[in-house]
Amino acid sequence: MRSCTAVTRALITGVSGQDGSYLAELLIAEGVEVVGVVRPPVH
Question: Which residue(s) pair with 11 in the sheet?
Answer without folding.
Answer: 35
